[in-house]
């Protein structure tokens, strides 16, 4: 598999690290206008660093555009004459629709829009994917790329904005919950570093329990709530203070905001 990452910035480098560690690429072209910050990738024999997007595009089977949305139109215009129908075109640019990409390069190309999150750098991204009609032929290949960075799920393009809130913004939401738990643990007498470790591992354990058992969260809650015990006391107090409600309201506020940004 020959892959080009056009715009190897923060997310592009995370994707590159995931692909290299899974050893799923035979050649990996990384582009940036200034490639100095990519020098550490030189130790991988599969990697070619270049500031020339056309060279990378011409040599790859899969091209991942990981530039900021404001740069994407111009870059696509510059390389579109090189694109071949058998290549898979992937864009991770937030809010940049498949229709907009088709308007520049044409609908005859396989186009996939992907929304990973920053956990791609530790290969734990939740990535949502959508494709154009032609791209359906290569969606499994796109899933292979993003499964090397965590877990991927195909969804309709209309749901990508919602997925951005749940998965990309979601990283921040979960971070805040972990921080709040840490603050609570410090109040109960733990050192900050200990409190942080307790909060992180308990969060990780809770998610792993659900993933491995397939259980509903309430089933796992039932297992740890003794009648009249301390867990249900704390949980009910959190709900009286609006825990679930505030999360749902926050998710809806983010969704409203992302839709406003899109239509500006
Ligand atoms: N970070 C995330 O968690 C995340 C999650 C989902 C989606 N996204 C989307 O992913 C995209 C990239 O995000 P990011 O955080 O990785 O941004 P970033 O760090 O700014 O990376 C973009 C890179 O593109 C390069 N670039 C700019 N113009 C270029 C050109 N003409 N040719 C080649 N490279 C060029 C820039 O490097 P030079 O200045 O050296 O060229 C920069 O390093 C964005 O569209 C963002 O919306 C990000």
TrEMBL record:
SUPFAM superfamilies: 6-phosphogluconate dehydrogenase C-terminal domain-like, NAD(P)-binding Rossmann-fold domains. Residues 157-260 form the Pyrroline-5-carboxylate reductase dimerisation domain. It catalyses: L-proline + NADP(+) = (S)-1-pyrroline-5-carboxylate + NADPH + 2 H(+); L-proline + NAD(+) = (S)-1-pyrroline-5-carboxylate + NADH + 2 H(+). Its main location: cytoplasm. NADP(+) binds at residues 6-11, 66-69. The keyword Amino-acid biosynthesis applies. Residues 2-94 form the Pyrroline-5-carboxylate reductase catalytic N-terminal domain. Pfam families: F420_oxidored, P5CR_dimer. Keywords: Amino-acid biosynthesis, Cytoplasm, NADP, Oxidoreductase, Proline biosynthesis. It is found in: Cytoplasm. Pathway: Amino-acid biosynthesis; L-proline biosynthesis; L-proline from L-glutamate 5-semialdehyde: step 1/1. InterPro entries: 6-PGluconate_DH-like_C_sf, NAD(P)-bd_dom_sf, P5C_Rdtase_cat_N, P5CR_dimer, Pyrroline-COOH_reductase. NADPH binds at residue 53. Coiled coil: none annotated. GO terms for molecular function: pyrroline-5-carboxylate reductase activity. It comes from the Bacteria. One of its GO terms (biological process) is L-proline biosynthetic process. Belongs to the pyrroline-5-carboxylate reductase family. Catalyzes the reduction of 1-pyrroline-5-carboxylate (PCA) to L-proline. This is Pyrroline-5-carboxylate reductase. It comes from Polaribacter aquimarinus. The gene is proC.
